[in-house]
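Review session, final week

We close the course with one last complete record, chosen because it touches almost every idea we covered. It is DUF4940 domain-containing protein, a protein from Thermotoga maritima with 257 residues. Go through it on your own first, then we will talk.
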Amino acid sequence: MLRFPENVVICDGKRILWNGLGLPENLVFEMARTVLESNVPLKGKIFCFPAQTVLGKMAIFTDEKTQGRDVLVELLNHELLRMRLYSEEVENLVEVLFNDWRPGKRVFIVRSKNFETRLSLREKLSSFADVIYNAGEIDVGIAPAGTLLQINEEKVSFSDPERDIKEAVRKALLIDRYVNEPFSFYEKLPAYNFSLNIQIPELVKIFLRTGDIQKTSELTEKNVEVVFREILKFEKKTLLSPRIPVEAFLILKGGLD
């Protein structure tokens, strides 16, 4: 979950990324579009100015007494670089689990070949799981951080204990998609056998080798926004993040052509 200052609003003219000041949406969009089109700040009780960020040009709102606006933009960029886009698959499972979620729990995915085995697994998992729900071809649930039960039939994939439910769902789906083990945990990812079979864009390959978005931008002569958006797109499609060391290791271990 991204954390921005409470005295800031961020808008790209189409969506509001953060509204720490609680301004009315119609006011934010009206001022943002004016500032972005004219490239001229608007001054008043609320100061709105255009700024180039890692996600493109944004309208930044803050109170007029805020000093060091260049520093503020740097701070916002630092936080924006932690941003992640989530696939529809992730968002759908989040919707199923949201009301039962508590920070520090695990999400797990259950995949079985037939209905009888699925029912048997549900019974075994219910001895420690908080909830288990049918989610189409899979079952999805929430479990405590300290999960001790070992099941060596079909496939059960656990996230690590997470604060954010979207990250927990993403990690559980990642394990389910790539790890070739019947009972597996995200934190043990490097120890497992896995099948990658994904295409890695050139910008992502260079980022994996450099570990730095700015350096990747310089080497490819692409601006930072292009590099960052390519990484976000790759993460959304594959569930794998080259920005997370253990997942970068997984991609590198899988081999870069």
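Two points worth writing down before the exam:
Residues 92 and 135 are 9 Å apart (CA to CA).
The mean pLDDT is 90.
Good luck, everyone.
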